[in-house]
Amino acid sequence: MPNPFIECKSLEEAAKIAQVNIRLPEYSQCIIYAVKNSFVEVQYPLNETSNITIRKSAGKEDISGVYDGKEMQLHSTVGVDVNVRLKDGKFISAYFTGDDGTYSITCDEPLEADEIIAIVDNIVSVNS
To answer: Which pTM was predicted?
Structure first.
């Protein structure tokens, strides 16, 4: 089966391929992918050993690709309900739904709650 991920030079190019409206904060050294008619994926370094992956689809389902672990909900400082998954007490994924689709957040290493909230708040701020 061919790889569905298409590497893109910009969010605009990825949005056209995925048929998804997306606005994100500026991330340095990011890599942008699109899956045709499905979602946009942006990867950027969190630190020297770990990357953050943000996905956006037009739907309302969890697109993180992480479906195990305990589910719970956090509330961001800007009032967004964020669904998170925990494994061994660590946050392994998060997703939230806005007016025009769903964002998911994953990381190569587990995140702390405040790190997830900061990412969500940054995404919400560029979309307000």
So the answer is: 0.94
